[in-house]
Amino acid sequence: MLSKNRIKQINSLQIKKYRQESGTFVAEGTKVVLELLRSDMRIKEIFAVPEWILSNAEKFSNTIITAVNAVEIRKLSAMTTACSVVAEVYMPKHPNKPEFKKGVTYLALDGVRDPGNLGTILRIANWYGINTVLASNDSADMFNPKVIQAAMGSAFRIRVDYCNLPETLLEARNNGIDVFGTFMDGENIYNAEISHGGIIVMGNEGHGISDEVSSAISRRIAIPCGCDSATAPESLNVSSATAIICNEFYRAKK
Amino acid sequence: MLSKNRIKQINSLQIKKYRQESGTFVAEGTKVVLELLRSDMRIKEIFAVPEWILSNAEKFSNTIITAVNAVEIRKLSAMTTACSVVAEVYMPKHPNKPEFKKGVTYLALDGVRDPGNLGTILRIANWYGINTVLASNDSADMFNPKVIQAAMGSAFRIRVDYCNLPETLLEARNNGIDVFGTFMDGENIYNAEISHGGIIVMGNEGHGISDEVSSAISRRIAIPCGCDSATAPESLNVSSATAIICNEFYRAKK
Q1: Confidence band (pLDDT; 50, 70, 90) for B229?
Q2: Is residue A74 scored above 90 in pLDDT?
Q3: Among partner residues B226, B233, B243, which is closest to A244 by beta-carbon distance?
Q4: How far apart are CA A121 and CA A116, in angstroms?
Q5: Do A122 and A230 fall within a single domain?
Q6: Mutation test of the interface with chain A: which of B236, B242, B249, choosing the one with the most A Cβ atoms within 10 A?
Q7: Owning domain of residue A35
């Protein structure tokens, strides 16, 4: 039987402060945990109901699996709907700063606050083979359970570096890396020369790219709007814009 | 002072059944209500705190505005954060079926259940000038407050027709309209002939396009993945995929 303390500790991982203290985070639900097992992430412990263990037995080796009952799994889970598996996972460590190479595409997030947006963006990055994402320190935490859920496994395959974003971008720019940002008055992305990749900066949900980060941008681009200004929305959602821009960068390389 | 019954009635509009009974829905928050005032929607009543009325006075005419205090607005609002304006709005009526024209692009949603996704998709449609969206009856309700919130005003500018989707699509197809659907084994959208528009069908979050709707599809397309299959996500989120496809259709027309 699971101790009350262990349940409490797993529940505490909903909060960033406790994740940082323990160096672990929680992933739950069959789809996400199976993606976890396919990934390079180090798993601390998996809690699952016996039926789940039975039907997924061939998918794990060298993993500590603790069988729990339906009541216990509900106590461990933060999901509103029934869930049969919860995993505690070590956060990966990246001791060195990422190195930026010419010809490669990267993403940078300047204050993307909504965990659902961050998760969706990680899934987009993964789809287009973007392996490194920079994030300003005021962006949502990638180990927030809602991010893990929305990323559908992509959070296990992408390196996210939280950093002083203006400083990091300026350094990359000084090393000859193009730094792209989306602005209403930017160059139409259909015509822009983007085939050499670079760092694509996406801004905050309400305020876009901050002034500080703006000054590190070398290339201002825009997504064309197919609607006259009287009936157009003010902007696209940040994850929609990321999807379109990443697709354009990938397309330009082909 | 607002009656308890009026507060209760406004709160009841969180639920589809009561929206259908009253023929109205709720929109709240400054950004959304200002978009509402710019639109053709018929407003039944706006409730706002005096400060809001004062600072937005020039934006409304012929609208019933009721001044309420901070306690009352909190009771009317379903938002977790403080809000200064709540509107009750008549749902638009579309007595006739939409007519599909060759050369025009439409969207169709086959069981898109998440209100956040639906709202984001309406914003994308609006951005690309798509004015009519079909939705299967099991899709999220467009007047769900979460849809209104995520659509950021675009819900007021787009016609959404809930219908028997396979039947409607088949009828359009029989009238010479191309019906596109996204499938893993579809034709690469970068090479597909899509410049004549048609109806773009997007599927359910977990299960994609249903078998019934599949049989009405005339053109199977695919979004290229820039990642090898071992490390690729299973799919993109439905709103990300919609953004990419709508961008490609718009791009092909230019």
Answers
A1: confident
A2: yes
A3: B243
A4: 9
A5: yes
A6: B236
A7: 4-90
Nearest-CB residue to B123 (from A124, A237, A243): A237
pLDDT, average across residues B114-129: 97
Nearest to B189, CA basis, from B238, B241, B112: B241
Whether residue A20 lies inside any domain: the answer is: yes
Q: Which of A179, A135, A124 is nearest to A157 (CA)?
A: A124
CATH code for the domain of B113: 3.40.1280.10
Extended strands (E) in A96-208:
105-110, 132-136, 159-163, 179-188, 198-203
When the pLDDT of each residue in chain A is averaged and rounded to a whole number, the result is 95
Contact A111, A211 (CB under 8 A): no
CA-CA-CA-CA torsion sign (A76, A77, A83, A87): negative
Please give the ipTM for the structure prediction.
Answer: 0.94
Residue B39: Cβ within 10 Å count: 18
Residue of A nearest to B226 (CA): A128
CB burial class (10 A; 0-12, 13-18, 19+) of residue A131?
Answer: middle
Is B123's CB within 8 Å of A236's CB? yes
CA nearest to A188 within chain B: B251
Sorting pLDDT into bands at 50, 70 and 90, what band is B80?
Answer: confident
Among chain A residues, the shortest Cα distance to B249 is held by A226
Q: Which amino acid is at B111?
A: G
Kindly indicate the confidence band of residue A47, based on its pLDDT and cuts at 50, 70 and 90. Answer: very high
Asked if the structure places residue A33 within a domain, the reply is: yes
